[in-house]
Each structure stands twice: as structure tokens, then as C-alpha cells.
Amino acid sequence: MSAEIVEKDSKNYPILRNLQYSPLKQGEEQYIVLWDPSGLSSEKLVLPLNFFYLFQFFDGEHSLEQVGAEYLKKYGEFMMPDRLTKLVSDLDEKLFLEGDRLKQVQAQAFEAYRKLDARPMAFAGRQYEDDPAQLRAQIDGFYASKEGPDKGKAECAGQVIRGLVAPNFELKDAGSIYAWGYQELRHGQVPDVLVLIGTCHAGLEGGVAFTDKDFETPFGIVPVNRAIIDLIRKESGETFFLEDIAHLREHSLELQLPFLKHALGEGREISIVPILVDFPPDTLTGGEYQQLFHRIDQFLTIT
Questions:
Q1: Are 211 and 167 in the same domain?
Q2: No. of H helices and E strands in the chain?
Q3: 60, 133, 138, 245: which has the highest count of C-beta atoms within 10 A?
Q4: Considering the domain boundaries, does residue 9 fall inside one?
């Protein structure tokens, strides 16, 4: 006789999503600002540190009564149940919690993304110039800056470039570091098909996410390599495309494209295979690494 699995009420056993946090100080008071790195929610929430402490217990395993007990144990104060309920309600309203409401919004977002012909620019005009002429000048400035390579000789000049490790930090702060890497591409031999692998800062359930969307840039559209994308889909079905919407708000690949087009020449025809990766700690430390290795083997076999 199999045991019956009872699903816990998400309102009483809340599960916090993978969010990003930053400290905020106002006078002598300290707060934490929460936001959604995936862009699914545009909301932000400012909380005092004592509320932030509770989030480690929003794991689907602790009831609100147990969360309140943890608060009492930590601070020696009783938190009224209605305050805790209000906090959970605010988090759910902002799509910061797992649950039915989040699933509905996610489904709508997935559908909208899959109807797009190309991934729109998410950071142009903020992290780099959105006007082509201004962008050229901006990138030229990174090369010519005192921290950049200027017109110095590339270490791999004339050689076949098989890979490049580049930053994914904001261009305005790290542009000259990008320039040192892309200096090698400017003077090396680079293939027409480029596999771009970037970190998914918002996290991925499956560890790997491809997308079949072309990428918009101020220098024009950068197309994906349809032959490779179609082969991967043929061999693996939707396995590696289930979380392709992660590309929509992720900056790690978008920030490479202005430098890539600038380094290789805006008129050169290239295609890309865009891949985001993220391996949750549980896959490495929680006994799930065999599943992770299987997915990596599956990907390598296809490619």
C-alpha cells in the first residue's frame, strides 16, 4: 500500500523564489532590498533585517507557526501571526513566492517569449549605448583608455582562436577588461559559428538553457545557427529549451555581442549558439550530481 502524498498549502508553507538581495542603509537603520533577477516581476521590496532573517525558513518545510517560533527564538519577541501573513501576502503579490499565481504568470511569459522572432535588447541604453555610432565610440574608448590594450599587439595575432573567457560585468565599469579579451579576436582567426556560454544569474532548474531566438543588437541582428539548434532539438526534444525564457533578461551573453560585432566587423556574417548555464549547489553537494552528469553527457553527445 503506497503512502498518500499530501501537498502542503503554499500560503502556510511558503517557498521563496531565487531572488537577489542588496543592502540599504538609511541613517542608522539597515534594510535589505529584494528583486527578481529573471525580470518576471519588476517589483522591489524593502525589508528590515529581522524580516529578512525569516526567509531562510521559507523553504516549503516550515509552517508559518514554525517560522514565528524561529523569530521568537532569535529575537526574543513574538511576531503577531497577522504580520507574518501580511508578509507572505506581499511576497506573493510581487511574484516572489512559488505557487499557482507564479505558474500562471510564468506560462503567459513563456508564451509571449516564444512568439518573438528575436530576443530584444534588455540593457541597451543603460549598460551600453543603444545608438550604433555612439556604441562604436564607446567601445573604441574602452580600447584606447589607459586600462585598455589600445593598439598593442595581440598575444594570439594570426592564430586560430578556439575560445575566449570574457567578463559579464557592466560595460561602463569593465569595458577595458572586455577590450583585452576581444583584442585577441580582432587579430586572430575566428570561425563564423560561435558558441556563447554564459552564466544564468537568475538560476536554472535544469542547469542548461538554449534558445532558438536571434539576438537584436545596435549593430543589427545576430542570428542563431539554425542547423545546430535544429539538431539539438531533434536529438533531445525540448530538454534544453524548457527554460529558454531565461535568456530574455540575462545580461551575460547580451553584453558580449556589441564587442563581438565590433571586433569581427559589423558587416561580417556570423551565427551563434547561445547557451546559459547554472548548476544549483544541490546538484553538486546534495547527491544529485549523477543527474547533472547525465545532462552534461547528453549535451556533449549531441554536439
A1: yes
A2: 10, 9
A3: 245
A4: no
CA dist list (Å): 33 to 1, 25, 150, 170: 48, 10, 39, 20
Amino acid 272: pLDDT: 97
Q: Can you give the pLDDT at residue 144? A: 94
- Asked if residue 24 belongs to a domain, the reply is yes
d(CA 172, CA 114): 31
Whether 103 and 138 map to the same domain: the answer is no
Q: What kind and span of H or E run contains 134? A: helix 132-144
Stated pTM of the model: 0.82
Mean pLDDT by 10 residues, the chain (303 residues): 60 91 90 91 92 93 95 92 92 93 92 94 94 96 92 83 91 91 92 94 87 97 96 89 94 96 92 89 58 63 61
Q: Which of 72, 107, 142 is the last residue in one of the domains?
A: 107
Cβ atoms of 242 and 206 within 8 Å: the answer is: yes
pLDDT of residue 290: 63
Helix pair angle (289-302, 226-236), 10° resolution: 130
In the DSSP assignment, the letter for residue 154 is P
What range does the domain containing 276 cover? 117-302
Q: Given phi > 0 = left and psi -120 to 50 = alpha, else beta, which region is 209?
A: beta
Burial (Cβ within 10 Å: 0-12, 13-18, ≥19) of residue 202: buried
Tally of structural domains, the chain? 2
Query: Tell me, what's the pLDDT at 120?
Result: 97
Please give the grid coordinates belonging to residue 131: 545608438
Cell 558558441, residue located: 195
Task: Dump strand ranges (E) for 78-158.
Answer: 118-119
pLDDT of residue 73: 94
